[in-house]
Inverse folding.
């Protein structure tokens, strides 16, 4: 007898006390970052302290949602649940605010011809698994 297994699904984020606010805003279609009020420098990923000065005088602010393609590698060997999208870029976007975020580029075929370094991008929020309800930020060309 053949066992019927459900199709694999992408692992969803597990917010913790440091990242809950970030993920709540992502679900609302907004991208928020943190800034150190002592250094006046933004940072990402979310945490309770500044990665530069280790100060805890930090605040949240809404990001512009604009960035540029900093670098990428095209993955041709996807893990389970990612096969339909391969080949796809594992990209690093530098946000207008100066922080960098690892992500995927949507809206265009992920080929070296299409993925031009420094190309302007904007953030979008899409469900990680279709119909799964959990959104994550992706980036698309402007
Ligand atoms: Zn600081």
């Amino acid at each position: 007898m053949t066992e019927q297994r459900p199709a694999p699904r992408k692992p969803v984020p597990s917010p913790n006390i440091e990242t809950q606010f970030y993920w709540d805003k992502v679900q609302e279609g907004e991208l928020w970052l943190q800034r150190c009020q002592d250094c006046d420098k933004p940072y990402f990923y979310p945490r309770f302290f500044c990665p530069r000065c280790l100060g805890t005088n930090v605040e949240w602010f809404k990001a512009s949602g604009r960035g540029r393609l900093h670098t990428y590698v095209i993955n041709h060997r996807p893990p389970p649940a990612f096969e339909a999208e391969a080949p796809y870029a594992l990209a690093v976007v530098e946000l207008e605010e100066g922080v960098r975020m690892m992500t995927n580029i949507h809206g265009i075929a992920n080929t070296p011809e299409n993925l031009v370094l420094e190309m302007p991008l904007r953030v979008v929020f899409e469900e990680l698994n279709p119909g799964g309800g959990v959104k994550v930020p992706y980036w698309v060309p402007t």
